[in-house]
Each structure stands twice: as C-alpha cells, then as structure tokens.
Design a protein that fits this description.
globular, 5-stranded mixed β-sheet, 2 domains, Glutathione S-transferase Yfyf (Class Pi), Chain A, domain 2, alpha+beta, 11 helices, single chain, Glutaredoxin, 228 residues, 50% helix
C-alpha cells in the first residue's frame, strides 16, 4: 500500500556518528526531505538489515511507491548524491582552484589518516594511555593543513562554503572534544573560528536533533526540506 511518504528516501542514522552527521548536513543543505530513522548500533532495525549486510550508518534508501530502488551506504556517496540532485548553496561548485575530483581525493586522504588518528587520540584519552600527546600530534599534522587553508580564505577551499567544509567538520568537532582545554589554547585560531561558526548555527541544531528510535516507534519523521 502506498502512502504520502512512499516516494521519500529513508535515512538510517545515528545521532552522534560523524559520518551520519555529514550526511544529514548535506541533506539539510540540499533542501530535500528524507524519512529519518534513528537507530542504536546494538539494536538495528530488521528493515535496515534486510537491505544491507554491512548494517552501518548512514544508509540512504531511495524508494518509489514504497519499493526500494537504490541503497547508498557510504556517507560521502550520500552527500554527493543529494547535492547532485539539488545544490542550492552551490557546495559542489565552490572549490576554489581545486576541482571536485581533487577535493574528493583530499576527503579520502583525511578519511584514511586523520579520522583514524582522531579515533586513536580519543582512545588514548578514554583509557588514560601515556602516549596521548604523541597521538594528538599525529592529528595536528592535518589540523595544520586546515589552518593554512583558512588563513587564505573563510572556508577550506574558497571564500564560500564547499563540500570539503561539511565533509570534514564533524571530525574536527570530534577532535576538539577530546582535550577541550588544550584545544581552546591551541595554535589554530582560524580553525576554531571556522568550527564555532558551524557549532553555533541553526543548521547544526537541526541536524543534531534527537529522534525517537525507529525500533521503538515506527513513526515517519521528516528531516530536511528546509526552506530558507
């Protein structure tokens, strides 16, 4: 049976997962609606697992008349898909002197190295490891690259917000939370100002809204389609 929501994509999401966060940011920026289904990693919905053996978030499920037509399981692929469908903020256009292909390569580099380094840094703090400074310094190699970019223009690739900004922001936020006092005094003032612009925005409040778990409510919750 078709319903008023039978043609709206479904997003399986986890509130604080940085990969899911950046997918929600792209969806918000694309001004397209999705049905958001909040999950917990230890209690994933059967509907989600039936569509994916990976069972990871975010996961975007396109549907026509309630029939699944496409499943996208990587956050960057979700971002590119929704922004290619509708990009009113021109996030795929404002890459400065770099091509979109080059920006995607930068994102890939950060995913392989910076994101992994941040996880190691978080673990060092959580388990009170003795090498926390060394692990932080590995992350700083990438922070220095971002600070240098922001010393040239307001956003990471130009004077205008682009894909690189929204793809990396959730992970810089994650880094900033590990040793808050150190971060506030760190030699990255441009990066702190850039991150604060996001954290203090109405956009961030909306993409971080907490939703009732899908397994508990099975309620259709619209996310996105934000009119400016």
């Amino acid at each position: 049976m078709t319903t008023q929501f039978s043609n709206i994509p479904i997003l399986y999401s986890l509130q604080h997962c940085p990969y899911a966060m950046r997918a929600r940011i792209a969806i918000f920026k694309s001004q397209q609606p999705v049905l958001i289904r909040a999950i917990k990693l230890n209690n994933k919905p059967a509907e989600m697992l039936a569509l994916s053996t990976k069972g990871t978030v975010p996961m975007l499920v396109s549907q026509v008349d309630g029939i699944t037509t496409e499943v996208v399981e990587e956050s960057l692929d979700i971002m590119l898909k929704v922004l290619k469908d509708n990009d009113p903020s021109y996030l795929l256009s404002f890459q400065g002197n770099e091509s979109l292909t080059e920006v995607i390569a930068i994102i890939d580099e950060f995913e392989k190295h910076f994101f992994v380094a941040v996880e190691a840094y978080k673990c060092a703090k959580r388990y009170q490891e003795t090498d926390i400074v060394e692990r932080r310094q590995v992350c700083e190699v990438y922070l220095q690259k971002l600070e240098a970019r922001l010393s040239q223009h307001a956003f990471l690739t130009s004077q205008y917000e682009g894909l690189l900004d929204i793809a990396l922001m959730p992970f810089v936020r994650q880094f900033s939370k590990v040793e808050r006092q150190w971060y506030q005094q760190s030699p990255y003032p441009k990066l702190r100002a850039w991150l604060n612009t996001y954290l203090q925005s109405s956009m961030f409040t909306k993409i971080m809204a907490k939703h009732e778990l899908w397994v508990d409510c099975h309620t259709d919750i619209i996310f996105g389609d934000i009119k400016k």
